[in-house]
Design goal:
The two termini are 34 Å apart. The radius of gyration is 20 Å and the shape is globular. The chain is mainly alpha-helical and 287 residues long. It contains 15 helices and no strands. Helix content is 83%, strand content 0%. The longest helix has 31 residues, at 151-181. The protein has two domains: 1-112 and 155-188, no CATH class; 192-287, no CATH class.
Length: 287
Amino acid sequence: MKALAEFVMRGRFQALLVTVAGAGSLMLCWISAAVVALVTLRKGASQGAWLLLWALLPAGTLLVVFGDSGPLALLVSTAILALVLRTTVSLPLAVLASVPLGALTGLGLLVFGQGLLQQMVGFFDQFLASLEQQLAAQGGGQVVELLRPTAVQIAGMMGAATSLLSIACLLLARWWQAALYNPGGFATEFRALYYPPAVALALALAALALASMGVQYRTWAVICLIPLNFAGLALVHARVAWRGQGSGMLTVFYLLWLFLDPVKLAVVGAAIVDSWLRFRQRWQAKS
């Protein structure tokens, strides 16, 4: 990955080639988003905006031809986060900016993307109907009914996905920048990711308020918890580094985090508690 960053930073043509090639692929648009963020962080908003405009051509084509707004939303959201980070030099603030961007993505789908949402509703309906038949057959003919996601739920889910992926692309770009120009700088910056009590409490209360509105709004609540998840992940990285543990511990942790929802909730809870108790400062004091 570092070699790709080196190639991109050689010149405008190289950056343009990688950005446009990735933006035209549903599987590789995250690379284009990270490249746009890297150029924005290193060379400024004007250079990043120039790349973004070119990337919007293939991403816009995917939207028009296939109705998929995901690559377009990811490119724009990541570019905005990179601009926030370059302007404020604050990683916590840049990560926090993903919350309104994720919400706007979901709202935009509800207003302008009903066709795509109805297609996804139909897809989930067919998939769950087939799964119900399989479960009924295995259960001796007992009727099985699974909840179908609504358009509102899917819009929230896609907004959360955009928020999560845009942060991941921003962090990748920041890691590239550090690897090329400030080795080791990204690890220190990420481990320090933290939110004060007022921000952590506001995010948690907003998530609880949305979740209390009903099942279909729980995916929207996830958007509010994403910054706290990353703050919790930063806390885990700081703990592993303080104890001198290897990357194997982080690998096991991330596998658990990916597949077990209770682990995700525990990470969010740790971030909230850390906002009050400041664990990292206590660990440094012990050292």
